[in-house]
């Protein structure tokens, strides 16, 4: 069983119907059983707004949806819509694009998102690493996680490429999970990425979910990295599907 917990609609297709079919084909081609599509926080987007993605995959037994949300785009209206989707179980989490957008994970303007997620017991995801990484550095996320034990947080990309630093800082934060999407993006960095993942998975086996960031990155390459990890059978099952099933209540 494989669940890819970090997917986006691909951009190189003319409409959302064809994007949907391309994504489902990619899962089938790579032997992935289920996936989670993350919507953009913008109200109009080539990777789909919350409304686009929720409607596109409504009733799907293969794809679940996470809502992107931002204080910068019709915030109150989006909060109300996400509440409606959570109430009807049409989304399984919320994501804020720290770094892509100009706010820190600890900013007070995000409190309504965290409150909503805690109310419906769903995780909040963060973009981390890459460019503009200061908006959600591990030390800030630790501060947030410690201050909000009622929330579950998912740290996408594991502060790529500084995975070791990420795991060291956040190891004691039991309400923080790690989404490995995009960590196989640069083949030259695999020699430092792989041992950091293996060590952390041995230490925190229940806190990792597999993701590829398909739409931006190669799902096949991320599956290859996952398959190459020197971890136990039990750790692999947790990583490839069981943790995602628990965190996202699939």
UniProtKB/TrEMBL annotation:
This is Amidohydrolase-related domain-containing protein. Residues 75-250 form the Amidohydrolase-related domain. It comes from Ruminococcus flavefaciens. Pfam families: Amidohydro_2 (PF04909). Signal peptide: none annotated. InterPro entries: Amidohydro-rel, Metal_Hydrolase. It comes from the Bacteria. GO terms for molecular function: hydrolase activity.
């Amino acid at each position: 069983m494989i669940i890819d917990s970090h997917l986006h609609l691909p951009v190189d297709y003319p409409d959302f119907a064809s994007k949907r079919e391309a994504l489902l084909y990619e899962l089938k081609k790579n032997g992935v059983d289920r996936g989670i599509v993350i919507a953009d926080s913008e109200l109009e987007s080539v990777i789909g707004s919350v409304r686009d993605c929720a409607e596109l995959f409504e009733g799907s037994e293969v794809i679940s949806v996470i809502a992107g949300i931002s204080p910068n785009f019709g915030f109150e209206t989006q909060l109300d819509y996400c509440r409606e989707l959570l109430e009807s179980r049409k989304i399984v989490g919320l994501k804020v694009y720290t770094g892509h957008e100009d706010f820190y994970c600890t900013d007070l303007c995000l409190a309504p998102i965290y409150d909503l997620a805690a109310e419906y017991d769903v995780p909040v995801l963060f973009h981390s690493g890459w460019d503009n990484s200061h908006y959600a550095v591990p030390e800030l996320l630790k501060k947030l996680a410690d201050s909000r034990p009622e929330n579950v947080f998912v740290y996408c990309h594991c502060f790529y490429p500084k995975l070791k630093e990420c795991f060291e800082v956040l190891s004691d934060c039991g309400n923080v999970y790690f989404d490995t999407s995009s960590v196989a993006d640069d083949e030259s960095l695999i020699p430092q990425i792989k041992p950091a993942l293996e060590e952390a998975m041995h230490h925190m086996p229940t806190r990792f979910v597999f993701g590829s960031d398909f739409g931006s990155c190669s799902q096949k390459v991320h599956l290859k990295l996952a398959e190459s990890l020197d971890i136990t059978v039990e750790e692999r099952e947790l990583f490839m599907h069981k943790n995602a099933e628990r965190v996202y209540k699939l």
